[in-house]
């Protein structure tokens, strides 16, 4: 009881600190005053605008231009060396943007692929906050080769997985490059009563390795920070676009063969439909019938030498719009809902019959999200039908802060009969604080799970507070996880500890304390941009007994050069009390469940990424549990601008443990070939040789975007045992999807 009281007192101190800092920060100058300084008007046009990059229509000549872009990075003082001029128009269906980007050298174009490396090429982007609440917005960008990028900006973070249908064209000249964009109002969520949107424009100037913005954004904050937008003033707010319905039918077919099961050649075919229906101009309904959630993209393999599962991001389009409403709860140690768990059982896909997803604003300051997916059962005890339901609500308060609530429910069905004693539920709330000027952020959260026979000790709660200014960043966090907190549709790897002797997974509750800080020294010129020093300390204890579980602390030094190259030096010290014997590398004996202390040092260097030929390399050495670990590797990239990228990444880990605990020599080699025949036709091949997973994977993908957001994919995959180079399985898949606006 004394330990629980101590934890409670510590949490109260964190709450008091966050509250006191919030009062101090709230009284500071409001950065949304940017909208009083940076204003641009948009006017209606009756003329037809042709998206060809020429901007020669009379309508463009009569508009007000946003000029005098300011430096954003590596310094935020003064006007940008490479200037930009932006103009805006609209009609009943489209928002039009033109940008003239002045240059004195040939632009750097890293790729022609959509959503790939926009910030590493010469480029232009527009950031929009239609609700003007400084919390959620849209980002659209084009590089100098014409490659599009779009994403969502939520709470200071960018989600680039979101896709939308829009149009653009680029024209290159000797002293400038010009981009013309047309964004359908159907692709945006906005209110018909708001006549002032938040807006900013971001320019990438790779000749100088610099970024500029139209509305000033201080250097500690990202250029996409919605707290520093200027004002887009409408002569009349845009009306809701009638008939805002999108249908996305798909067809898929293919051949596969599993050589391990010797099942012979299998043929597959399927079809389904996704739909997007605008209930209002800022509330959207997504529907899916018989969806195909297989990935034509492939997850990048990594060597995992931790005791816990790795996190891989969601890529399925159905789950992406307003994704933050569902995905931003919890922390990196536990998320009550993780959409990649939907449609999976024990890591294997299960058929999904249908799904519905309602998300967006119901008032200017309130957003909701409702998700419901039904999977198919096969009348077997281990494969019942499942209904997976999530409901969230977000109420904005105090400018950029919010109160958020979530309910997650997994319910089993035997046919149409609900099984009353087969469910898992999680409910909870969060208060998220973000000061108006962005220098203080934090949250307080609490969740409880409900699972048959595990109703007690099923809480998790905690919070964090972080302060930052131009040079300094510091934060503290505390969280507690009880052993019976079970989130079957969430991500809770730290709770789950594998007992290799008894072949079982045991949940062990813990408390976690973390503190961190960094200090940046900015250069006044020359070859160095800045130096950054960073330190952190993390402590885990058993939440019941208070006994020590694990500790890690570290120090980083980063040196960033003007030409975009960088050098990083780091050191780390770790202590761990293993709860169970550990099968780390497959030795003759398991590592015993006892106390270990180990440390390592690491050096990493990456060369100038703007050059056609670039390299990166790292080396790490130190003790590891009761032995040693040497890691080294890197990558080589050759760019044939703008049509080709050829990369090889190599990672080698050599682990030597004493006696019969074993040694391991783990190799991961990942060559990649990317060829862009145009902005709409691509061929990408990944090869991944991973001795830890004993797998050699070939994934070769051809993509033809024959119309905006409509694709033909031809994908060949091949998997072999890495050691014996014996085939495991092969597959050839053809998928056709079509985006139809009604």
TrEMBL record:
Pfam families attached to this UniProt entry:
CBM9_1, DUF5916
The DUF5916 domain extends over: 246-660
Q: Where does the chain cross the membrane?
A: none
Q: May I ask which residue range the UniProt record assigns to the signal sequence?
A: 1-27
Single GO MF annotation: hydrolase activity, hydrolyzing O-glycosyl compounds
Matches recorded under Gene3D superfamilies? 2.60.40.1190
Q: Which InterPro entries match?
A: Carb-bd_dom_fam9, DUF5916
Which keywords does this Swiss-Prot/TrEMBL entry list?
Lipoprotein, Signal
Q: Where is the Carbohydrate-binding domain?
A: 51-213
Q: What is this protein called?
A: Lipoprotein, putative
Question: Which organism is this protein's natural source?
Answer: Microscilla marina ATCC 23134
């Amino acid at each position: 009881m004394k330990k629980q009281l101590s934890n409670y007192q510590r949490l109260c101190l964190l709450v008091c600190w966050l509250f006191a800092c919030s009062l101090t920060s709230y009284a500071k100058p409001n950065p949304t005053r940017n909208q009083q300084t940076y204003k641009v008007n948009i006017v209606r046009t009756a003329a037809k605008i042709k998206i060809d990059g020429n901007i020669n229509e009379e309508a463009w000549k009569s508009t007000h231009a946003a000029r005098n872009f300011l430096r954003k990075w590596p310094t935020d003082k003064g006007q940008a060396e490479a200037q930009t001029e932006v103009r805006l128009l609209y009609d009943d269906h489209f928002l039009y943007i033109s940008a003239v980007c002045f240059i004195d050298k040939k632009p750097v174009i890293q790729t022609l692929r959509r959503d790939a490396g926009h910030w590493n090429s010469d480029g232009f982007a527009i950031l929009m906050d239609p609700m003007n609440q400084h919390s959620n917005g849209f980002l659209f960008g084009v590089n100098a080769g014409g490659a599009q990028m779009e994403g969502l900006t939520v709470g200071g973070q960018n989600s680039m997985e979101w896709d939308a249908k829009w149009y653009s064209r680029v024209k290159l000249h000797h002293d400038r490059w010009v981009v013309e964009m047309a964004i359908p109002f159907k692709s945006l969520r906005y209110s018909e009563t708001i006549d002032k949107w938040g807006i900013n424009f971001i320019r990438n100037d790779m000749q100088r390795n610099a970024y500029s913005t139209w509305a000033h954004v201080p250097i500690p904050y990202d250029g996409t920070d919605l707290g520093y937008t200027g004002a887009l003033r409408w002569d009349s707010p845009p009306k809701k676009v009638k008939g805002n319905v999108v249908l996305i039918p798909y067809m898929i077919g293919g051949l596969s063969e599993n050589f391990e099961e010797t099942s012979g050649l299998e043929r597959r075919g399927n079809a389904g439909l996704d739909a997007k229906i605008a209930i209002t101009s800022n509330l959207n309904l997504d529907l899916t019938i018989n969806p195909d959630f297989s990935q034509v993209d492939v997850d990048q393999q990594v060597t995992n030498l931790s005791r816990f599962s790795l996190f891989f991001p969601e890529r399925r389009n159905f789950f992406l719009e307003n994704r933050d409403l569902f995905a931003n709860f919890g922390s990196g140690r536990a998320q009550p809902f993780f959409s990649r768990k939907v449609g999976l059982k024990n890591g294997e896909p299960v058929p999904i019959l249908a799904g519905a997803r309602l998300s967006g604003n119901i008032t200017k300051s309130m957003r909701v999200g409702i998700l419901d997916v039904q999977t198919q059962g096969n009348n077997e005890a281990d494969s019942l039908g499942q209904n997976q339901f999530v409901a969230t609500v977000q109420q904005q308060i105090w400018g950029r802060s919010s109160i958020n609530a979530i309910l997650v429910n997994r319910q089993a069905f035997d046919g149409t009969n609900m099984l009353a004693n087969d469910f898992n539920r999680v409910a909870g709330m969060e208060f998220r604080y973000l000061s108006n000027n962005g220098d203080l952020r934090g949250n307080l959260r609490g969740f409880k799970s409900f699972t048959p026979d595990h109703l007690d000790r099923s809480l998790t709660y905690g919070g964090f507070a972080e302060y930052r200014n131009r040079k300094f960043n510091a934060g503290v966090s505390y969280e507690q996880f009880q052993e019976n907190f079970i989130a079957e549709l969430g991500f809770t790897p730290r709770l789950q500890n594998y007992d290799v002797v008894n072949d079982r997974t045991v949940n062990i509750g813990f408390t976690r304390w973390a503190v961190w800080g960094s200090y940046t020294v900015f250069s006044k010129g020359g070859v160095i941009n800045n130096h950054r020093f960073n330190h952190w300390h993390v402590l885990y204890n058993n939440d019941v007994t208070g006994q020590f579980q694990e500790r890690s602390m570290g120090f980083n030094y980063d040196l960033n050069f003007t030409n975009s190259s960088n050098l990083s030096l780091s050191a780390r010290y770790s202590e761990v009390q293993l709860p169970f014997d550990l099968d780390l590398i497959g030795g003759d004996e398991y590592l015993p469940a006892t106390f270990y202390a180990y440390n390592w040092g690491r050096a990493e260097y990456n060369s100038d990424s703007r050059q056609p030929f670039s390299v990166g390399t790292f080396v790490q050495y130190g003790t590891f549990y009761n032995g040693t670990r040497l890691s080294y590797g890197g990558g080589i990239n050759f760019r044939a601008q703008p049509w080709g990228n050829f990369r090889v990444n190599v990672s080698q880990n050599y682990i030597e443990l004493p006696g019969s605990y074993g040694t391991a020599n783990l190799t991961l080699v990942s060559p990649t070939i990317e060829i862009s025949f145009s902005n709409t036709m691509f061929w990408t091949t990944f090869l991944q040789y991973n001795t830890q997973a004993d797998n050699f994977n070939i994934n070769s993908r051809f993509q033809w975007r024959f119309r905006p957001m409509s694709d033909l994919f031809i994908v060949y995959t091949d998997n072999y045992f890495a050691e014996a180079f014996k085939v495991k399985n092969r597959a050839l898949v053809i998928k056709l999807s079509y985006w139809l606006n009604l």
